[in-house]
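stage 2 :: seqdesign
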């Protein structure tokens, strides 16, 4: 199968899935996911997972989910025996002093302890995993296991734990290296044992969230069907791998198109593009400045290197002092913005956001918007709204000069 044939087959499959999703929408709402509307960062996800693992959690399902998790993590019957009496904690402090840290989730089962280090986006601190394993070994004589749960499935860095030791800990069963995509297997084991429809719906929502945020798809079954198409024979596999290898270059080309479109529209209005580094880097952005030499820009950025936690607002390059009234003007536009030194007024995007109605993590719709020009239009429309507000508040001249 040549590349064109594979793309045709893929397009047919996607059209079929889209038609089925539309037909199912009224009953199953396949595109609805509550987590899309929540600020589910590391601590938020930890609280959700901790509640599911807690036999006394509000889900009301007892130890069923914890038992399924223990089996999924490869822990033996000794762990399962005491699951119903387990105690679950979040942000549990480890050793005091210089080595102090906080384990994201800690499950106490008698003399044993299951710890989960939740790393959906964040990077490790120096010797973090090594210190956590040392602390668990010291305080949990009955046995311990640390599950390192990353967004990509990659293990901890060499600065977090020496690779040779990590291998020994994995072999001994004290360290499990896994990722969010693998977590779907556990969640799917939980669904049939849940007797509460509301909890089952939540589990399904988490699966959708993982698919969109960590696997680049909002339809896990669709992805499974695509895999079936690709692995049938070499003729399908080879062009599929070539497309995967070109993924970063495709995204870069799409963003180049966004920058070109924004730059052209900005010049026609007497603006300039102050930043155009939105890409596979953390804190990359595309912003517009209203002055030739102004250090203040307004636009869209990403908090993570994988185009995640998209946000928008006011960017101050070099921490330049803001003109009086600018924060008030941004509050009027954004509603309830947050603030940092580099972004004195910012807000996460969202499906129903006034200026950027998109998902907080770049999904398929984001890249289609980059292709058809609607993403560039959002940036320009936001800059238009900012300029109009600044003009109405009589601070546009001051902003242009900063």
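stage 2 :: out
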């Amino acid at each position: 199968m040549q590349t064109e044939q594979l793309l045709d087959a893929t397009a047919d499959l996607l059209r079929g899935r889209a038609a089925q999703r539309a037909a199912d929408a009224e009953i199953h709402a396949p595109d609805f996911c509550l987590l899309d509307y929540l600020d589910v960062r590391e601590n938020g996800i930890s609280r959700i997972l901790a509640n599911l693992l807690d036999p006394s959690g509000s889900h009301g399902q007892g130890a069923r989910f914890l038992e399924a998790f223990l089996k999924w993590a490869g822990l033996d019957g000794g762990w399962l025996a005491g699951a119903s009496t387990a105690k679950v904690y979040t942000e549990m402090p480890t050793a005091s002093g210089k080595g102090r840290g906080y384990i994201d989730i800690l499950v106490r089962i008698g003399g044993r302890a299951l710890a989960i280090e939740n790393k959906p986006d964040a990077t490790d601190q120096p010797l973090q995993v090594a210190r956590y394993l040392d602390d668990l070994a010291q305080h949990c004589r009955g046995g311990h296991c640390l599950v390192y749960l990353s967004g990509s499935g990659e293990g901890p860095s060499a600065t977090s734990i020496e690779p040779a030791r990590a291998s020994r800990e994995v072999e001994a069963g004290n360290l499990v290296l896994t990722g969010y995509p693998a977590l779907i297997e556990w969640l799917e084991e939980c669904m049939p044992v849940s007797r509460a429809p509301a909890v089952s719906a939540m589990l399904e929502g988490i699966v959708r969230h993982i698919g969109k945020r960590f696997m680049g798809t909002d339809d896990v079954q669709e992805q499974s069907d695509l895999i079936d198409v690709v692995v049938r024979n070499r003729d399908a596999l080879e062009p599929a791998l070539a497309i995967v290898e070109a993924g970063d270059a495709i995204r870069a080309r799409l963003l180049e198109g966004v920058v070109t479109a924004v730059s052209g529209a900005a010049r026609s209005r007497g603006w300039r593009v102050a930043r155009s580094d939105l890409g596979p880097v953390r804190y990359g952005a595309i912003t517009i400045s209203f002055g030739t030499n102004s250090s203040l820009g307004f636009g869209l950025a990403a908090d993570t290197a994988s185009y995640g936690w998209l946000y928008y607002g006011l960017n101050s390059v070099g921490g330049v002092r803001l003109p009086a009234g600018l924060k008030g003007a941004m509050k009027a536009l954004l509603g309830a913005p947050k603030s940092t030194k580099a972004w004195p007024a910012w807000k996460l995007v969202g499906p129903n956001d006034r200026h950027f109605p998109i998902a907080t993590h770049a999904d398929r719709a984001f890249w289609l918007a980059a292709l058809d020009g609607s993403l560039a239009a959002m940036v320009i429309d936001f800059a238009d709204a900012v300029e109009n507000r600044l003009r109405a508040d009589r601070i546009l001249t001051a902003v242009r000069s900063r």
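stage 3 :: structure notes
- DSSP finds 15 helices and ten strands in the chain.
- Residues 3-28 form the longest helix (26 residues).
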